[in-house]
């Protein structure tokens, strides 16, 4: 049996709706970008800074990024998947399961060229908050940031070892029948 | 929102403008890896993974830096290579055609969305993969 514990609230990222017509004010966000491709890292950093984010830290590998994570306590992580020796997937699992990170609720966007459904599900099961397929554009990245700010899903911890955003959120909205755990 | 995106696009202008220069070098490395694989290591899973990883990078970078056709070709080759335990002679033809297609995209400077060409190329490569797989 897989028992899940629901956490009251995941801390919201620092982005908030400003009064400007320009949409969200992301200037107070601290973002950590992890990608082994120098060019992709720089492109993501440039886009983020273009959105007004002042504190963007980049890292070329997950091991180094984990050290950064302990010290900088980012509001959002954007990570590539296909990296060595530690993959983006392992990096996410390590964050979600670690007792040493300041905030294991930190929202994580998986940025990857993998688009197959089995990969998306694998990333979801590692504990990511959202998935952004490469190739990317400034518009697609901006939309993912907004999604992260608006994401109100609770975090759950299961006896099966999963910790992360509630993976059932999307399906539950459509479900009309009796809940399995509903008290009789 | 639109202003923020415009600011980001403008900020990345120089970076995107430099793409073709280093991407052509990366493509040459992919070609060399293919040549070495053709010569000796068709059954070598390490070489196969190297080919896949380099193609996977090209797939993600092409469209991000203004060359969506590179992503179309890269995606087609990734689909073909994904899960393949070893390469056969016919597979080498598929890889060669895909790398040559990427070279042609750069040689012709086919930046941005190319309208019907993108769809045609996508369909053509899909038919080619299916035909080879059926042999």
Brief account:
The complex is a heterodimer of chains A (184) and B (135). With 184 residues, chain A is of the alpha/beta class.
Folded structure, characterized:
The complex is a heterodimer of chains A (184) and B (135). By secondary structure, chain A is of the alpha/beta class. Chain A has a domain at 27-154: Rossmann fold, CATH 3.40.50. Chain A is 34% helix and 21% strand. Chain A contains six helices and ten strands. Chain A starts with a strand and ends in a 10-residue tail after the last helix. Chain B has 135 residues and is mainly alpha-helical. Chain B has a single domain, classed as Four Helix Bundle (Hemerythrin (Met), subunit A) (Up-down Bundle). In chain B, helix 3 (19-39) runs antiparallel to helix 6 (89-107), helix 5 (68-81) runs parallel beside helix 7 and helix 6 runs antiparallel to helix 7 (116-134). Chains A and B meet through helix 1 and helix 5 of A and helix 1, helix 4 and helix 5 of B.
């Amino acid at each position: 049996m897989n028992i899940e514990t629901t956490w009251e609230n995941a801390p919201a990222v620092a982005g908030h709706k400003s009064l400007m017509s320009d949409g969200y004010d992301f200037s107070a966000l601290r973002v950590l970008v992890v990608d082994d491709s120098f060019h992709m890292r720089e492109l993501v950093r440039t886009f983020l800074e273009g959105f007004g984010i002042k504190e963007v830290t980049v890292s070329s590998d997950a091991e180094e990024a984990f050290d950064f994570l302990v010290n900088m306590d980012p509001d959002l992580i954007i990570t590539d998947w296909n990296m060595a020796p530690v993959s983006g997937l392992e990096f996410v699992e390590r964050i979600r399961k670690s007792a040493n990170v300041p905030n294991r609720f930190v929202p994580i966007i998986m940025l990857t060229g993998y688009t197959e459904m089995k990969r998306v599900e694998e990333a979801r099961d590692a504990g990511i908050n959202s998935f952004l397929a490469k190739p990317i554009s400034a518009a697609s990245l901006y939309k993912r940031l907004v999604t992260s700010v608006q994401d109100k899903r609770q975090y759950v911890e299961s006896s099966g070892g999963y910790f992360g955003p509630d993976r059932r959120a999307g399906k539950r909205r459509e479900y009309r029948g009796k809940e399995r755990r509903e008290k009789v | 929102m639109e202003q923020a995106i415009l600011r980001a696009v403008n900020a990345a202008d120089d970076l995107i403008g430099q793409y073709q220069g280093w991407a052509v070098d990366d493509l040459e490395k992919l070609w060399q890896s293919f040549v070495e694989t053709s010569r000796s290591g068709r059954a070598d899973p390490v070489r196969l993974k190297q080919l896949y990883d380099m193609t996977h990078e090209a797939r993600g970078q092409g469209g991000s830096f203004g060359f969506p056709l590179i992503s179309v070709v890269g995606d087609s080759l990734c689909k073909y290579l994904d899960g393949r335990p070893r390469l056969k002679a016919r597979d080498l033809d598929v890889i060669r055609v895909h790398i040559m297609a990427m070279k042609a995209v750069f040689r012709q400077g086919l930046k941005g969305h190319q309208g019907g060409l993108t769809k045609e190329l996508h369909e053509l490569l899909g038919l080619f993969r299916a035909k080879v797989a059926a042999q």
